[in-house]
Structure formats: structure tokens, C-alpha cells
Specification:
Helix content: over 70%
Pfam family, one: DUF3053
Radius of gyration: 23 Å
Strand order of the largest sheet: 1-2
Protein name: Lipoprotein
Organism: Salmonella enterica I
Number of helices: 4
Keywords: Lipoprotein
Number of domains: 1
């Protein structure tokens, strides 16, 4: 609950990271495409390029939006709990609300 603002900032940073990753990949691909290599060296370099640049970038790119959604959901849950104030109690690694409506709203936020 106390880390909502840093989570908001991290969420914004993830958006910047996604754009930077895409730009870096485009620049690397352009440089790779313009590179003049001997015929015997090209397949080896292409294989290394794929392993070092393409595969990691392609693996990371879809994770960023998922991380953004997750951090946004954490912020929303924290805000909801903070809005409930003293009505919320934490018991045995769980959370309790005085009304079923509050519990239902909380469960909807966390996807239950």
C-alpha cells in the first residue's frame, strides 16, 4: 500500500523501456542489414546476431506490457485498500473486509 507512487513511476518507466527496446532493435537490425561481410563469415555472424540480439529482444518485448498491466493492478489494489482505511484487517496472511460488497470489489480487482 505504501509503494503505490514508486509502482506508478515504474509503470511509466516500463513504457519508456518498451520504446527504447524497439528503437534499439530497429537500429541494430538496420546496422546488421548494412554490414558487408565475407560469404563465409555471414552465416556465423547471422547466427550470433540472432542469439545475442534477436532472440532476447523478441523474448522481452511481450513481457513489458504484461508487467505494465501487473503494476497498474497492484496500484489499483493498493488504492482500494487505502480507501477502506480502518475497515480493513489483515489476518493470517489474508485480508478481511466488514462487508461482502467490499470483499467482492477487492476480489474483482485481484481477478478472483
Amino acid at each position: 500500500m505504501t509503494q503505490r507512487e514508486p509502482l506508478r513511476q515504474a509503470n511509466g518507466s516500463l513504457g519508456v523501456l518498451a520504446q527504447q527496446l524497439q528503437n534499439a532493435k530497429l537500429q541494430a537490425d538496420a546496422a546488421h542489414g548494412a554490414l558487408k561481410q565475407a560469404d563465409d563469415l555471414k552465416p556465423v555472424f547471422d547466427q550470433v546476431y540472432k542469439k545475442v540480439v534477436t532472440v532476447p529482444a523478441d523474448a522481452l518485448q511481450p513481457l513489458i506490457p504484461a508487467a505494465q498491466i501487473f503494476t497498474q493492478q497492484l496500484v489499483q489494489v493498493g488504492e482500494y485498500i487505502a480507501q477502506q482505511g480502518e475497515q480493513v484487517s489483515f489476518v493470517a496472511n489474508g485480508i478481511q473486509f466488514p462487508t461482502s460488497q467490499q470483499a467482492s470489489q477487492y476480489n474483482a480487482l485481484i481477478g478472483r
